[in-house]
Amino acid sequence: MRLSAFSLVIGFLLTLAPPSLAQNLDSRVNMPGLQKGAVAAGCYSADRELYGRYRLHFCLEPNGTYRVTGPQLRCDGQLAWKAQRRDVAIALRRKRCNGGVAWTAADISCRPNGYRTIAMSELFGDRNRGGRVLEQVKVPVVRQMRCTYQPSGQGLNSLTFFAVRN
Q1: Distance separating alpha carbons of residues 123 and 126, to the nearest angstrom
Q2: Using CA atoms, how far apart are residues 27 and 31, in angstroms rounded to an integer?
Q3: pTM to 2 decimals?
């Protein structure tokens, strides 16, 4: 009897915790061929300019950040993110920039390219340079994701880009 009442109290308290997109640095996304998934946390850059000549860089950290740079523009903002199953959901918060303009809030949904990309980068990225008896255990990390950027501003279309780990 006591145990079930305790469980109810704990369950009730957990429902009071505010929902958050924030993740710890070990947040993983599921990927075929990788039993324990791959770590999504880290910093990425868009492979192309967005909405004109603007570059997006973002870091998936507990206190996530993003930066947009372009001609006479620099915005440094905050983001929230969550790795869930195979996807990474990112929410950029609206941010005032220099020059009296603001970067609109946006949602970004990303999906890692696949385990072959990770396996190849792990295989050819850091080669073993000698006959070591002990090897450091490597945790697979996401190297590249295909992302869809959906701004909240009216009249702005969504676009797709690749986010490449820095």
Answers
A1: 7
A2: 13
A3: 0.72
